[in-house]
Write a structure and sequence with these properties.
With 435 residues, this protein is mostly helical. It has one domain (58-293, 301-428). The chain has 21 helices and no strands. The protein has helices at residues 2-20, 25-39, 45-55, 62-75, 79-90, 96-112, 115-132, 137-148, 150-153, 158-167, 172-201, 211-236, 242-260, 266-299, 302-313, 317-334, 337-354, 359-373, 381-390, 394-417, 420-428. Helix 6 (96-112) packs antiparallel against helix 7 (115-132) and helix 8 (137-148) runs antiparallel to helix 19 (381-390). The longest helix is centred in the middle third of the chain and has 34 residues, at 266-299. It is globular, with a radius of gyration of 22 Å. The model has no long low-confidence stretch (mean pLDDT 81).
Length: 435
C-alpha cells in the first residue's frame, strides 16, 4: 500500500506540476502516466495498448459526427434565426435582450452542444446588439457566457457521449433525455438574476408578444430545430444508434446550411471540416492519453482510496454530495472539460452511486460543474472567448459574472438534491437507472 500511495502521489504531483507549467493537458496526462509506470517498473508497451483501447469504442464514433454537425450548423446562418425566434418568445420581458440571449442559447445548444461554439457564434451578434440598446457591456458578456453552458446540458452533447463511454453501461439516449429539464432549470435561474439586474438598472423591454410573429419565426427556424429531433428521437425510439443518428444529422445539417438557409458555400464546408479536424484531434488525443491515466489510477486502487478519504469526512450523503461538487468545481477551474470527465469519472462515480446518486444524475452534475469551470479563471476558455469578443478585461467580466455564478450554483444544488429534475424525463420514456 505504501508503494501504491507513493506511486499515486508521483502520478498526481507530476500531472499538477506540468499543468502549472502550462503543458498541454494531453501531454501532462501522458507524461505523468509514463513516469508512474516507470516507477512501478512496468513496460511502456502498456501506454500504447491503453491509448488504442481508449479510442477503440463504437460509441465514440458519434463524437466526430456531433462536432461536425455543430460546426456546420453554427456556420450555416442559423444564429440570427434562432435569435429572432428567442426574441419572439421572450423579448417582451424586462431586460428583453438578456432573456433572448438565454433562450437563444437553449435553442442553439441543442444544435452545437458546445459552450465555446455558442459564445463565439451567438456572442458576436448578441453582445453588440445589447450594448447598442443600452445594456452594460460587462453585463451583456456575463449573460452570454453564462447562458452558453446550457448547450452542454441540452442534447446532443458530445461530452455526454464521452461520459457515457467512460462510465460504461449508461445509455446515451437516457443522458440526452436527462439534459432537457436541468438545462431549463439553469436557463430559469439565469433569467431570474437577469430580470433582477435589468429591473435595477432600468434596462428596456422589447416589442410586445405577437403570436403571428412567433409563428413566422418558428417556421423559419424549424429546419434548424429539426436536427435535434433527428438525433434525440432517433436514439430514444431505437431507430438509430447515437453514432448513426449523428451521421444522419451531419448530412441533414450540410443540406440545410447549403440549400435551405444558404449561409454556407462549398468552400465554407471545407473550412468547417478543417475546424472539425482541429477540434477532434484534440479530443481524441485527450481520450487516448486519459485512458492510460485511468489505467494507472485503477491499478493503484486510487478510486478506493479516494472513496475512503471522502467517506471518512462524513457519512452524511448530503455532505458527500456537496464535497463531490466542490471537487468538480475546483477541477473545472484548472482543467478543460474532457480530461475532467475522463479522469474523475472512474474515481468519483462509485462514490456518487454509493450515496444513492443515479449515474445519469451524476453525469448531469458533472457536466454542469465543468460548465461553470469554463467561466472561471485561470483556465476558463469560454471566459476568454467572451472577453475577446467584448474587448473587455477578464477581471471586469468576472466581476459582472459573480451574481450569475451564485444562481448557477443554486441551479446545481437543485439538480444535486432533487433527482427528479434529471431523471423524470428518462423515466417517462421508459429508461430506468443508469446501470
Amino acid at each position: 500500500m505504501i508503494d501504491n500511495t507513493t506511486a499515486i502521489l508521483i502520478l498526481i504531483a507530476c500531472f499538477l506540476f506540468m499543468v502549472i507549467l502550462r503543458f498541454p493537458i494531453a501531454y501532462s496526462v501522458a507524461l505523468a502516466s509514463i513516469i508512474c509506470l516507470k516507477y512501478q517498473g512496468m513496460s511502456l508497451a502498456i501506454v500504447c495498448q491503453q491509448m488504442v483501447k481508449g479510442i477503440s469504442s463504437f460509441s465514440l464514433m458519434a463524437v466526430p459526427f456531433f462536432i461536425t454537425m455543430g460546426v456546420l450548423m453554427g456556420s450555416g446562418g442559423i444564429s440570427e434565426k434562432l435569435l429572432n425566434l428567442a426574441d419572439a418568445c421572450v423579448g417582451w420581458m424586462t431586460g428583453g435582450l438578456a432573456m433572448v440571449n438565454i433562450v437563444a442559447s437553449y435553442f442553439f445548444g441543442g444544435i452545437s452542444g458546445s459552450a465555446a461554439a455558442d459564445t463565439a457564434s451567438l456572442g458576436s451578434l448578441e453582445i453588440p446588439m445589447m450594448v447598442d440598446r443600452g445594456y452594460d457591456r460587462d453585463f451583456s458578456t456575463a449573460v452570454t457566457i453564462s447562458s452558453s453552458v446550457e448547450g452542454m446540458l441540452v442534447p446532443p452533447s458530445h461530452n455526454m457521449v464521452i461520459y457515457a463511454t467512460t462510465a460504461g453501461g449508461i445509455s446515451v439516449g437516457s443522458l440526452f433525455l436527462a439534459g432537457y429539464l436541468p438545462g431549463a432549470v439553469l436557463a430559469g435561474s439565469l433569467m431570474v438574476i437577469s430580470y433582477i439586474i435589468s429591473k435595477k438598472e432600468g434596462y428596456p423591454k422589447g416589442e410586445p408578444f405577437s403570436v403571428k410573429r412567433f409563428w413566422n419565426e418558428f417556421r423559419t427556424s424549424i429546419w434548424a430545430l429539426s436536427s435535434i429531433l433527428i438525433v434525440v428521437v432517433g436514439v430514444v425510439a431505437g431507430v438509430f444508434t447515437a453514432t448513426e443518428s449523428a451521421a444522419i444529422a451531419v448530412f441533414y445539417s450540410l443540406m440545410v446550411s447549403l440549400y435551405v438557409y444558404r449561409g454556407m458555400t462549398w468552400r465554407g464546408v471545407w473550412d468547417a471540416l478543417e475546424q472539425c479536424i482541429d477540434t477532434l484531434s484534440i479530443v481524441l488525443i485527450l481520450i487516448s492519453t486519459s485512458s492510460v491515466f485511468g489505467y494507472c489510477l485503477t491499478m493503484l486502487h486510487a478510486p478506493e482510496l479516494a472513496s475512503n478519504a471522502i467517506m471518512g469526512v462524513s457519512d452524511n450523503p448530503y455532505v458527500i454530495a456537496i464535497l463531490l461538487n466542490i471537487i468538480l468545481l475546483i477541477l473545472g477551474m484548472i482543467m478543460d472539460m474532457a480530461p475532467i470527465i475522463l479522469i474523475s469519472t472512474p474515481i468519483l462515480l462509485p462514490i456518487a452511486t454509493s450515496i444513492g446518486i443515479d449515474p445519469i444524475q451524476y453525469g448531469i452534475m458533472l457536466v454542469l460543474n465543468c460548465g461553470i469551470g469554463l467561466l472561471t479563471p485561470p483556465v476558463g476558455s469560454v471566459l476568454f472567448i467572451g472577453s475577446a469578443i467584448a474587448k473587455r478585461p477578464m477581471e471586469k467580466i468576472v466581476k459582472a459574472e459573480v451574481p450569475f455564478y451564485i444562481f448557477m450554483i443554486i441551479a446545481l444544488m437543485i439538480i444535486t438534491f432533487v433527482p427528479a429534475v434529471s431523471l423524470c424525463v428518462p423515466w417517462i420514456f421508459g429508461y430506468g437507472g443508469g446501470r
